[in-house]
Amino acid sequence: MKLGLRLSVVLLAAVPLAGLRPVHAQLVGHGGPVRAIAVSVDGKTVLSGSFDTAAIRWSLVTESAEQVLRLHADAVNAVAFLDEARTATAGADGRIAIWTAGRQQPDRVFEGHTGPIVALAVSPDASTLASASWDRTVRLWSLSDGTSRVLEGHSQNVNGVAFTPDGQSLVSVGYDQTARAWRLADGTSEIHKLPAPLNAVAIAPDGEIVTGAADGRLRMMTADGKDSGNVAADATPIVALAISHDGALIAAAGIGGTVVIVDRKARSVLRTLVGPGIPVWSVAFLPDGATLLTGGADGKIGRWNALTGDAVGSNLLGTPADPLAAYAGDHGAEIFRACVACHTLADKEVQRAGPTLAGLYGRKIASLPGYRFSEALKAMDIVWTPETVSKLFEIGPNAYTPGTKMPEQHIGSAEDRRALTDFLARATSK
């Protein structure tokens, strides 16, 4: 939500980023499912994108959010590192933003897709960005001048894209059950029909192509498109893939909430990482080839040792300190608990996906400096008071603040609404 109070769809006790324990803690800050994860070449920085419309740049050295990136009007479905300083984010709004670390606004925005963008890939020489979209096309974007060309041929949503190691070809996969190997020199493609709709693709350092399908299987092809094996990875559709930097391991995330680690050469399942039982939307290996990051529907980024199957630290709720511990027994604080995934109560805390609620009462809607609000909210004449916040949850955000991204939620009890607004008066005025 882009006002002063966004409740997370997932009810969980998120923690202030500044309070995370070093090295082994989860990365917590998104207010919705983590749809995409990318890791820098040196392994020190992570970029994540979420259904909450934000991307977050994280430092693995300090275990903190370095920057929250806001541009997209819908879910951020894909992220990528272009080099040490520059990153790319792409969303369901059909736009791609190019960012430089430390800058609040993107350097450039690419537009052209007419449907959600769901995957990005960077060429080996970092000159070209490829995007896959549900408008049934792949686009190639020049990172030097922003020009693009369109690769057409898929008959349904394009769900994944990856460059070959030599940079001469590109592989795209779609719901039309095809993997297409595009020769970038002339834009022609070889079409490989597979038995099931395809949701993801990754290419190993030796050029082998790995696809993840809706039937839960991984299918491998040689660089020239010949069938080279398959693995039954999960009973549910595979939605994300990652290959370790040495090419030894494949991580396949299933919509059912498990991540399967596969020995690529042996074509065998080594182990299954069992998390909290919620969907896992994204996976990425660190350069060490052993540490795997997973992004889940709970808005958290967890860490695993892919070699042993053990969680690194804890991937369960409740390990760090409760951010509302100081308000134990406060009924209003318990109602607010659903909000802490997105919002801080004090402006000294590292900002999460939503704006801070510090100084909420008396503030005009969509007026907080440094936060990107929608034009619809900026045009509204609402000042946040106990009465207006109560009204928001009495009639619902869609009716009270049309154009908001906040999930539709109501607090039916007048007593509960009053407890919440009283709590906010105490907690946000400090």
UniProtKB/TrEMBL annotation:
The keyword NADP does not apply. The keyword Ligase does not apply. WD repeats lie at residues 27-68, 69-99, 110-151, 151-192, 273-314. Residues 327-428 form the Cytochrome c domain. Residues 1-25 form the signal peptide. PROSITE patterns: CYTC, WD_REPEATS_2, WD_REPEATS_REGION. Keywords: Electron transport, Heme, Iron, Metal-binding, Signal, Transport, WD repeat. It holds the Pfam family WD40. Gene3D superfamilies: Cytochrome c-like domain, YVTN repeat-like/Quinoprotein amine dehydrogenase. This is Cytochrome c domain-containing protein.
